[in-house]
Amino acid sequence: MKAYLKSINIITFGPMELYPMRKIIEDTIAESGVEIGSILVSAEGATPALLILEKGLEKSIIKLLEMFVPYTIWRHGNAYAHLISTILSTSLIIPIKDSKIVLDRDYEIYLLETRAVYNHRRKVLIYIHGN
Amino acid sequence: MAKEIRIKMVKIVIESNGYTAIDITSYVNNAVKSQGLYNGFVHVFTSEKKCSVTLIEYEPELLSDLEEFLKKIGCIDIGLCDAIVGKSVIVPIVNSTLFLGQFKRIVFIDTSNVAGEKGLVLTIEGIFKEH
């Protein structure tokens, strides 16, 4: 079994904007040469989130999160961003089979920028293992 | 850059007062360093009842906000917070360093109200330094 590691920078604009990552993830799997295994994707920091989402439901998930975790009722300054990050998670693992992620074409993998930022650099780490 | 990977497992025991959030980042960091993992990931898991492992900034007001959030959704009283927050996290390791960012910490959350020793299982996978 082999391992392949790659670091990627994504420039984000927030708050509550989704950045598609599926293409980057698929390209990285192709580079790795892994045919069967799994891919770990992890976002640096305590406020972003990674999520697998059915295409077309982008606005609905943001609305749901804003209802579930309001912006302003908390003690800590940007607590809403931290709580969303903690609940949704900053990492995912997806299986790889036949050199492709096992994920329907109707799904996208998103990085969620929760903070009100402009031109913000987000580091995402990809670790692939398999044969 | 594909190299052979190996897996090691480490058990950690921490002391809990039964209702608390404990920053366990340094325990995990020490385990990863002492095992000699260079590139890969660590899976931090607890099988303890009503206990969770999560990623969040370890700041008192934010932890109060998380407690408030868990109270609001009603999981503390019925002992279901570990199902919401999760029993484990996965953190990549790059050049023997945990890939977290400036503020993100690995935090053990206990809502059991049972004081005592609590166990954590660390599965460390990747490219290890040669001894």
Structure, explained:
In chain A, strand 5 (91-97) and strand 6 (100-101) form a beta hairpin. The mean pLDDT of chain A is 97. Helices cover 24% and strands 42% of the residues of chain A. Chain A is elongated. In chain A, the strands form 2 sheets. A 5-stranded antiparallel beta sheet of chain A has the order 1-8-3-5-6, with helices on one face. Chain A has one domain: Jelly Rolls, CATH 2.60.120. With 131 residues, chain A is of the alpha+beta class. Chain A has helices at 22-32, 58-68, 79-88, and strands at 2-12, 17-20, 37-43, 49-54, 91-97, 100-101, 107-113, 120-130. Chain A is built from 3 helices and 8 strands, in the order E-E-H-E-E-H-H-E-E-E-E. In chain A, 39% of the residues are buried. The longest helix of chain A is centred in the first third of the chain and has 11 residues, at 22-32. The two termini of chain B are 20 Å apart. Chain B is α+β, with helices and mostly antiparallel strands and 131 residues long. Chain B has a 5-stranded antiparallel beta sheet with strand order 2-9-4-6-7, covered by helices on one side. Chain B has 3 helices and 9 strands; from the N terminus they run βββαββααββββ. Chain B is elongated and about 50 Å long. Chain B has a single domain (27-128), classed as Sandwich (Jelly Rolls). The mean pLDDT of chain B is 95. The A-B interface holds A 1-5, 7, 32-33, 40, 42, 44-46, 69, 74-76, 79, 82-83, 85-87, 89-91, 93, 123, 125, 127, 129 and B 1-5, 39-41, 54-57, 59, 61-62, 64-66, 68-69, 84-86, 89-92, 94, 99-105, 125-127. Strand 1 (2-12) of chain A pairs antiparallel with strand 1 of chain B.
